[in-house]
Amino acid sequence: MKALVKAKEEAGLWLMDVPEPELGPGEVLIKVLRTGICGTDLHIRTYDAWARQAVRTPRVLGHEFVGEVVEVAPGVQDVAAGDLVSGEGHLVCGKCRNCLAGRRHLCRSTIGLGIGRDGAFAEYLTLPASNVWVHRVPVDLDVAAIFDPFGNAVHTALSFPVVGEDVLVTGAGPIGIMAAAVARHAGARHVMITDVSPYRLGLAERMGVSLALDVRTATIEEGKRRLGLREGFDVGLEMSGRPEALRDMIANMTHGGRIAMLGLPAEEFPIDFARVVTSMITLKGIYGREMFETWYSMSVLLEGGLNLRPVITGRYSYRDFDAAFDEAAGGRCGKIILDWTA
Length: 342
What we know:
Blueprint: E1 2-6, E2 14-17, E3 27-36, H1 39-46, H2 49-54, E4 59-60, E5 64-72, E6 84-87, E7 90-91, H3 97-100, E8 111-112, E9 124-128, E10 132-134, H4 141-145, H5 147-157, E11 166-170, H6 174-185, E12 190-195, H7 198-206, E13 211-214, H8 220-227, E14 233-238, H9 243-251, E15 253-261, H10 273-278, E16 282-285, H11 293-303, E17 312-317, H12 321-330, E18 335-339
Parallel strand pairs: 11-12, 11-14, 12-13, 14-15, 15-16, 17-18
Antiparallel strand pairs: 1-2, 1-4, 3-5, 3-9, 3-18, 5-6, 6-10, 7-8
Helix pairs in contact: 5-6, 5-11
C-alpha cells in the first residue's frame, strides 16, 4: 500500500510502498479515506529538535483521520465492517492508576499514533478497537477527518463553564478558531480572539467570534473597551504557546478568572505569578482529549448545528502531499485535508 513515511533522519517526507498492517488482537483494520495535517506532522517533516528525539525512522505519519472499517479481530464488539470511524490518537497502557480510574487522558505511558506507532497517512491503518470512535450520525468526511484537533478545541473550550461568560482566545490557528466557535456555541456572551495573521483573524470572524483583534495594531485592553467589559475576561483559552500571549491574558483576566492552556511553548518563560496569586487565577494545562467524554461532546455539538466547514480551507490528493504540506506550513490557511481516495 501507499503511505507517507518519515524514512530518513533528515528533513522531508517520502511517499512509499509499505506492507499493509497486520490485524492484531483486539484491533480494527481501517481503510483510510481522508486525513488532516497537524502541526506535529509539520515538525516531523522539517525534523526539528523535538522530532529528532520523538520519532524513530522509518515511521508512517498521521493521526487525524476518517476511514471505513474493513475487518475486526475476533472478539471485538460494537465496531463492525462498514462503520465510518475516526480514532483517538493517544494509545494508553490501561494499567496505571489513572487508566484504572477512568482518567485515560492522564496516562503516563501514552503512545502517539503517527509518532510512536505507524499512523494514518496510509491507505490502511490498524488501531485498537478501544481507540475507535464510530460516527453514528451523518458527518461530513472532511470534518470527521479533523475530529482529533476538534477534540483539542472542545476539551480546552469546555474546561470551565462558559455560559454567559466573556472569553479571550489567544492564537487564531485552526484549533484556536474552533475553540472560539465552541465557546460561542456553548453560550459565551463575548468571545474575543487575538493573532497577528489577518487571514486567520478573517477565518475567525466567519466562525462567529465577537471580535477578532490584530495585536500588532491594538491591545487586549482596547479590545476589552470595544466589547464594553468593565473588569476583565472570565475565561481564557491560551492556544498560541507564546510568552507574550499568556502574559497579556493574565493581565486582562477578572479576579477569579480561569485559564485553560493548550498552546505548547518552545521553551520556558516567566509570568507574573504575583498577579496569578493575588487575582486568584486558575491555570489548567490541556493535552489531547478526555476519553471519550470529549468525543461525545464533539458529536453532539455538530448535531446541534456547530459548523466547522469554514476552518477547512484546502484539500489535496495524498499524491500531492508536498504542496499540501507547503500550504499548511505557510500559515495562510485553516485545516488542510489529504484525500486518500483521489
